[in-house]
Amino acid sequence: MEELAEEKHEYCDGRIHAMAGARDEHELVAGNFFAELLRGVRGSGCRAYKSDMKVRATAAFRDKVFFYYPDVFVACGPVEARTAYRDDPKLIVEVLSEDWKKDLAEKLTIYRNIPALEEYVVADPAAEAPEVFIYRRADGWEPPEVVTGMSAEFTLRSVGLTLKVADLFAV
Amino acid sequence: MPTATAERTFHRDADRTTADEPRRAAVRKALGNYKVARGNTERTFTDWQHARDAAAEIKYEGVNHLDKYLREFEEKFTARGGKVFWASNSQQARDYILGLARERGVKSIVKSKAMTSEEIHLNDALEKEGYAVVESDLGEFIQQLLHEPPYHFVFPCMHLKREEISALFERELGSAKTDSPEELTMIARRFMRRHYIEADMGISGGNFIVAETGMISITENEGNARLTTAMPKIHVALVGIEKMVPKLADLALLLPMLATAGTGQHLTCYNSMYGGPRLPGEIDGPEEFHVVLLDNHRTRLLADPEQRDALHCIRCGACLNVCPIFKNIGGHAYGTTYQGPIGSVITPHFKGLQDWKHLSGASSLCGACTEACPVKIDIHHHLLHNRRNAVAQHKVWWERIIWFGFVELMKRPWAYRLATRFAPIGQWFHPFLQASGLDPLASWTDTREFPQAATTSFGDYWRQRKAGRK
């Protein structure tokens, strides 16, 4: 159904809900992230996707299945022919939308169960100074590294790239 | 309380409170306002159902890995100078707190709302030893003056009208009569402020234990928990082990969900994190901070894979607020620390299945509680599980006879037809037994008319109809 639909839906344990269109600053930051990651992983065997490819995740509680469209993600495993989703993202980036709880807590909770996921990045375009939260998996999930301000830069270990905040938030 | 007494008391109190129509109307009105507020706040979530899934997942992770997370919490909390005591039961928890009060020469104690302290009857134990204990949550304070347990574990005095509270303050505190809620609050505040300053020990509960940071999260609307934790020299937080969440980020979801489901707020007015005693350079906070981790049969529930998710409960009280039984019988009739549907599920595990199985029977099984639960506890099915387990553990002879009779009757169409013929005749004799101790249908006919048995069965009607058409 989703392949033929005119609008995108996310699937949460038997329910689907239509996705709202994004705001300008959301699209700007998500687009910049995608551009940087696409350039960065080219030739490495990994692929970068932007908001049109689904990620499948399973919750531990009652084995529920969820399909999301992350704003940006990178997956490095083999690609099945004609697949409409990936369940092996290595890095997921979400840009905060109006309902911040969704990206900052709800999706983080479900994404944590994806075995291949190494980093989950949340960018806040609405904060006074740009903010990026990077959640990393070591033995378990570590407290986030918080990167603040236009002049800062940070390293995404999952893909071996160092990014400048200014490149991500600049028009 | 022995079995028969707990059950008899429940039926007696439920009958009494159900007949109190004005009180039921007041509770219905308050819960009607809650329903509107909660609906409005729920709509600020992109997808409330998904938020429930995520919240359930957080609690599932915490509850199913308590061994790991409790140790992580203890390590981080004690590294900052806090002390952790593991209490297997209520006696151990009481003894630890009493011992601490004795050793430190405590005289006066101020408490913020903690259902765990109700669960272990801490106030009684402290007062018996001569300590002055003052509840600082307004609702709890009113209930303390009334010498009554909380009516609802989130809204302790929701059943009282303001004139009743005014009369109580007039009698107990010598204040002037008023019907202004603001003035009533100020009367309580003036009384309490003095106790905050005098108290040597503060006691609180905890809404969440955060393993990642080794902290306790307390949410409230009155600021009383902050004063309780900040002013006395010694603080004790008495927290059930199931309050565990793995990550600080989990509170980004659970705090708004607790407020939404509990009171219809976006977030409670005060949300504090406590990581231990006052550190050098800090201007307030207790010199000693103790956390008592309370098991008290929670691990018994943890050992039951079928009902383990009952430990996900964040004590928001949403299941009480939507429950048709709670709305009619009120909180006190349950006779338990945790009232309503979730109380009916967990109390038999905490205090004995045979003694408290009757609570699982007092349900319409409508499922409103399960739908309202922000962490997706399968409450109404757990009530059925309790009923099944109670019967499997201890068969009731007269129920077995009735079911045997029913099965035999339903297996034989001729016997069933005969029974339907005799039912109207049997009903002629019922008035002779009604209102006497011999009436087998007394629990129904005491307050209701018994339906008239039909003199024509549907089978008879159908045959007559077919014959008429020919």
Which features does this protein show?
heterodimer, A: 171 residues, alpha+beta, tt1808, chain A, 6-stranded mixed beta sheet, 3 helices, 13 strands, 20% helix, globular, B: 470 residues, alpha/beta, Rossmann fold, 6-stranded parallel beta sheet, 4-stranded mixed beta sheet, 24 helices, 10 strands, 10% strand
Summarize the structure.
The complex is a heterodimer of chains A (171) and B (470). With 171 residues, chain A is an alpha+beta fold.
Furnish the topology, listing elements before pairings.
The complex is a heterodimer of chains A (about 170) and B (about 475).
Chain A: E1 9-12, E2 15-18, H1 24-41, E3 47-50, E4 54-58, E5 65-68, E6 72-75, E7 85-86, E8 89-95, H2 100-111, E9 119-124, E10 131-136, E11 145-148, E12 153-156, E13 161-164, H3 165-169
Parallel strand pairs in A: 4-7, 8-9
Antiparallel strand pairs in A: 1-2, 1-5, 3-6, 4-5, 6-8, 9-10, 10-11, 12-13
Chain B: H1 3-18, H2 21-42, H3 48-64, H4 66-79, E1 83-87, H5 90-103, E2 108-111, H6 115-119, H7 122-128, E3 132-135, H8 138-146, H9 162-173, H10 181-198, E4 201-204, E5 208-210, E6 215-220, H11 224-230, E7 234-240, E8 244-245, H12 251-263, E9 270-274, E10 288-294, H13 298-302, H14 318-321, H15 324-329, H16 340-351, H17 353-356, H18 358-361, H19 368-372, H20 379-393, H21 397-411, H22 413-433, H23 442-445, H24 458-469
Parallel strand pairs in B: 1-10, 2-3, 2-4, 4-7, 5-8, 7-10
Antiparallel strand pairs in B: 5-6, 6-9
Helix pairs in contact in B: 2-12, 9-10, 16-20
